[in-house]
Amino acid sequence: PSASTRHAPDPRLGTADAMKSTMQLVILAVMLASASAATMTFSANTADDTNRGSYTTTDADATATASLNVALKVSQDVKDIKDLLDATTVDYDAVKLKYDTELKSMAEGIPAAEPTWKKFTDHFGGVTFITDYFNMAITGTAPGFTDSKSRKEMIEKTVLDMLGMHLVLSALYQAQAGNDKALWDQGAAMFIGKSMDGTTPGTQTSTTYGRAQKRGGNYGTLDATTGEAKVNTVIIAALNAGRVAADSAAMLVQHDLILHQYKVLYSQATLRYANKIDMDLALSGTSLKDLQAEGQAFYRVIAPLVKANDADSAALLKDIFNTAKPTSFSANNYNYCAAKAALLKALPLVTAAEMGTYAEVTGTGSWTVDKSTIVCATTATTVVPTGLAGIATAAGTYTPTSHVGASLAYSEAVKVAQAGIGDTATAATHEALYNSFVNTGIKGVADVDRTGEPDFDLFAAYFGSKKFMSAKFEKTTGSAANSWVATYSPTESSARAEVQSKMMQDNIAVMAILSDLYKASQEDTAAIRHAYWDNGAAKYMGTTNANGQTVYARAHKRAGNYGTKTSDVANVNMKIVAAFKAGQGKEKSVMVTQLAVIRDQIKVIYAQATLRYANSIAVDLATGAAYAEHRGEGSIFYDGIAPYVKAKDAAGAAGDLLVKAFFDVDSGVTPESFNYWSYCAVKRVMENFLGATLTAEMGTLEKTVDSWCNSGDVAAPTALAKITTAAGVYTPATDVGSSMAFSDAVKAVKGTVGDTSATPNVDADKMYADTGIKGAVNKASTGETLWDIYKKFYGSSVWVSELVMKATKGTAPGFTFAASRAEVVEKSVMDAAAVQLIVSDLFQGAQGTTAAHRVYWDRGAAKYLGSVVNGGSSTVYARANKRAKNYGTKDATSSEAKANHDVIMALNAGATSTTVAARTAEYNKILTQIQVIYSQATLRYAHLIDTDIAAGTDHKEHQAEGYAFWRVIAPVVGGVTDNANGADYIEGIFNPGRMPTGTDHYCLVKIVLDKQGLSDADMGTLEGTLPDCAGKAVPANAKTLLATPGSPSPGTTPSPGTTVGSGASLGSSWTFVWAAVFGIALVMM
Q1: Using CA atoms, how far apart are residues 502 and 514, in angstroms rounded to an integer?
Q2: Are 232 and 262 in contact (CB under 8 A)?
Q3: Alpha helices for 115-162 (secondary structure H)
Q4: How many C-beta atoms lie closer than 10 Å to residue 1017's C-beta?
Q5: Rounded (5°) CA angle 795-799-803
Q6: CA distance 636 to 631
Q7: Are 942 and 999 in contact (CB under 8 A)?
Q8: Measured between alpha carbons, how far is 131 from 1000 in angstroms, rounded to an integer?
Q9: How far apart are CA 46 and CA 209, in angstroms?
Q10: Which long-range contacts (CB under 8 A, 24 or more apart) does 100-109 make?
Q11: Containing H/E element for 570?
């Protein structure tokens, strides 16, 4: 080659002819004057590492040295620009001036024939593509170029990386073309930069060499001895090999090797920032634009090379780093794994060994909260899910025009995280699940601040936080701060598991879907609008592999439960997919309309889900099955529509309180439901919420009957202001429809029995179970003093149900007479079951004065008073009125039982009590009145038996009624000191399996009942002609007499026992029991 070619001081300025310009000659003259002829060595050594690669030039004349100085100055110019960008307030005019003065001519002066440069100019549309991108970042007004941090990253990477690579490759390519070692030297100088001068650092941090050092640190490719990145070691070796190469062909081999290393380096950089985008979206989202801009600037350095091999991969990577998009999406580390697959496919010659192991996805270097390794199932043939080929479902195929892989991956993330939900919950499993919630990006999706979007604003206000979804999830796992102890449903892991699963698959997904669609409907820029819409559709449908973890799948399940499928496709899904298609690629107004359709159908899905689990819990309660899991499911499903329900209208607000309380796992209150109340009450709330049109689309839940709720007999599903009776008003603090419905259930059971009931009466058995009474009374209440006493007395924990079953079966001695059986069934459910449940509720309510205790107190009141509209005649209140009529104990003003007045007064006083002692005192007053009611009933039927025997009429029906009434108080009466024998005697009188004799039953029963110490004013006097009981006494051997099967009732032989009027009483036995329980002194009632 000629001297003029060999020693061209700056080949980047153009061809040899172009160098003859006056300005170039002046600059050259100045440089030559200051240069001395000497061989130059470029080293990347630092103060810490002194054995790194170096390069020694071949030429030693002044011209060559001047050219090398120009080449070295590039890294100094880049450094100067970086320093300007590091200022607190960036002077973009100064940055631009520096670029325009020192670098612009180089950026635009590379020979057009240089093959790598040509690929780039063809790809980007002209030779000014570097300057154009630089200027957009400087100006900061174009879409994607407005973020201040992003602009700085774009500028730095443009001058250091994009320009740096092309200047090096251009010099090397021209050098090999002319076998010009001086040009080759300049390429080496621009790659390495200035060497360290004494203690003054070199300029490697502003060169490609410096960039490779950083990536080497990230990917573990730094040499253990020299600390030099493998990319740098290979490139410097190639530079040296090219310098001594025999000919152009040999130099070209080294050029191509260096080009390959650039592919390695910027594949590392591209992949790193794809991962950082995933990380940021998963953890905070606060640095997204900055990271996206860095990734974009890095990816541009290899974009044309990627596209030359695989256009689809290039398009995917471009979309990942598209800063013009208002936001980006990530789930299951999609961006990292997709970028990895794209690079493998487009640049297959870049090996894993060359890339190294990326520390920020591996073990202790991983960004994940538990330092887990992120594993991508990717190979060079992996098809990255983008959605562009269409998202196929049974309801139709939706074909996006945008890349939606990250949104499709949401379902994959859910699948991964759900796999960590197990039956056994420990601190370790809680921590692992929470970490998965974060690592898969689901938490990041949940925590996006969507302020200004109507759905999000409504939900955030309802739940009191913008991070309401992740906050609830964290309560189910606990956190490191509390050693991973769950604070939501802490004792019920099954409920937590359902909340965890459905929160991820349903609630978070729905909010993200509605957010995408809303943004689309408000976006003016068509491309962005269409992309948002496409992403919403992708999140709804999910991938083929994880379609079961989508809202689409939830709709399919619920349609199966409600009979709302057509050709095995959920009607809801057909409508939603059709709406997605109708809105795709359309104007904002069309999207607004279709969004409304989709939102309505989502409401249908979760109204169905809410109602299904309200019914499931009712079934659990009725059958005695565990209900916690279903309660957790119902709770989280209802969370997905609760704000809409409340916002509908006043009835919706009241209904929201009802449903929320029913599903509240953390309330400290067990759920209850009688006579299908939970199903019917929630159904009415859902119907009010949805309106007539959407209600018609819900269908009918399997194994339910509309007549349960359409008869008008179910307690109102609203928070009741008060329960009004003629004896007084009670105002509950919460909705007590479930307890009021107990009387409706009693009425329903009573309707199945009569004097001609079948043997066995399967209708009564079924109704007793289906309405929830059996499940409620069979529930163990161990620790409640009276329940424990009754269990011991009867030798069974299900004493009420055992008697009901004996009566409905109709085969035991004394239980074959239909009328007797009917009376036993009726009184067992209306009286024995009611009293057991009322006493249990009030006991729970008297354990404290919190809101939860008040719920139980209110429930006891509601069961006592009953459903005024329908079941008022099937209550203890109604029984008290009947007995008051028999005993002359009606209130003079209201004509209601004095007992009812006393009970309602005590209920109200107890409700407002602020201490346990005060509420307990009111509780004991209520127990005393219950004793009065059933002592009246027991004594009355003893008298009726006497009357029947005296008249020679059949006594069996009255005996059975008396037996059922007696059992309500038998354990308490028998618990009075010296009264066990008396209780045995009464048992003998009323047991339907025994034949009563004589006509002294009234007197002897009165003797036994009087030992309770109930006041004459409370008891009153039984109507009719009563016998003279003077001198009567209960036989002392009642138990012995009863031991003989079929023996008559005990006779009336006087004994040393107490006689009428002896006054040997300990006072109210119920009061005595509660004094022992609470350890307080109580006034005898």
Answers
A1: 17
A2: no
A3: 115-124, 129-139, 148-157
A4: 9
A5: 125
A6: 9
A7: no
A8: 117
A9: 13
A10: 102/73, 102/77, 103/74, 103/77, 103/78, 103/159, 103/163, 104/131, 105/13, 106/10, 106/12, 106/13, 106/74, 106/163, 106/167, 107/131, 107/134, 107/163, 107/166, 109/12, 109/13, 109/14, 109/18
A11: strand 569-570
- Of the CA atoms within 13 Å of residue 1036, those in its CB half-sphere come to 5
Alpha helices in 571-665 (DSSP H): 571-583, 588-623, 628-639, 642-648, 650-663
The answer to whether residues 417 and 507 touch, using CB atoms and an 8 Å cutoff, is no
For residues 916 and 919, give the distance between their C-alpha atoms in angstroms, rounded to a whole number. 5
pLDDT at 1057: 38
Which residues 6+ apart lie within 8 Å of 874 measured at CB? 743, 744, 746, 747, 750, 830, 866
Angle, CA of 775, 781 and 784, to the nearest 5°: 150
Both tokens of residue 147? 């973020």
Single-letter code of the amino acid located at 388: L
Tokens of 49: 């590492």
Query: To 5 degrees, how large is the angle CA 910–CA 915–CA 917?
Result: 80
Q: What is the pLDDT of residue 35?
A: 36
How many secondary structure helices (H) and strands (E) does the chain include?
Answer: 51, 8
Q: Residue 1082: helix, strand or coil by DSSP?
A: coil
Cα 689 versus chain centre, distance = 22
pLDDT in tens, 251-266: 999 999 999 999 999 9
Say which amino acid occupies 501: S
Chain center to CA of 599: 19
* Residues 6+ positions from 911 with CB-CB distance below 8 Å: 730, 731, 732, 733, 854, 857, 858, 861
489 alpha-carbon distance from chain centroid: 13
Token duo for residue 324: 């013009």
Distance CA 906, CA 513 (A): 53
Give the tokens for residue 993. Answer: 């399996």
Residues 6+ apart with CB under 8 A from 131: 99, 104, 107, 108
Would you say 814 and 964 are in contact if contact means Cβ atoms under 8 Å apart?
Answer: no
Look at residue 804 and give its three-state secondary structure.
helix
CA Rg value for the chain = 43
Backbone φ and ψ of 559, nearest 5°: -65, -35
Cβ(804)–Cβ(825) below 8 Å? yes
Q: Which of 57-71, 585-599, 706-720, 755-769 has the highest mean pLDDT?
A: 585-599
Residue 345 CA to residue 780 CA, distance in Å, equals: 65
Q: How many residues does the chain have?
A: 1085
Alpha-carbon torsion, ordered 362, 365, 370, 376, to 10 deg: -20
Contact 502, 636 (CB under 8 A): yes
Mean per-residue pLDDT over the chain, rounded: 90
Q: What is the pLDDT of residues 786-844, one digit of tens each?
A: 999 999 999 999 999 999 999 999 999 999 999 999 999 999 999 999 999 999 999 99
Q: Which of 325-329, 478-482, 992-996 has the highest mean pLDDT?
A: 478-482
3-state helix, strand, coil in the chain (%, to 5): 65, 5, 35
Whether the pLDDT of residue 302 is over 70: the answer is: yes
Q: How confident is the model at residue 20 (pLDDT cuts 50, 70, 90)?
A: very low
For residue 613, the tally of other CB atoms under 10 A from its CB is 27
Per-residue pLDDT tens for 429-477? 999 999 999 999 999 999 999 999 999 999 999 999 999 999 999 999 9
**Helical packing angle, 551-562 and 571-583, nearest 10°:** 140
Please report, as a single letter, which amino acid is at residue 67: S
760 cis-preceded (ω within 30 degrees of 0)? yes
CA-angle at 526, arms to 520 and 529, nearest 5°: 15
What's the CA gap between 776 and 441, in Å, rounded? 44
Q: 707-755, pLDDT tens digit by residue? A: 888 655 544 444 466 899 999 999 999 888 899 999 999 999 999 998 8
Residue 67, CA distances (Å) to 5, 261, 1044 in order: 12, 25, 126
Residue 42's DSSP bridge partners are 55
**Buried-state track 978-1011, b at ≥16 Cβ within 10 A, e below 16:** ebebbbbbbbbbbbbebebebbbbbbbbbbbbbb
For 52-79, what is each residue's pLDDT tens digit?
A: 888 988 866 777 788 888 899 999 999 9
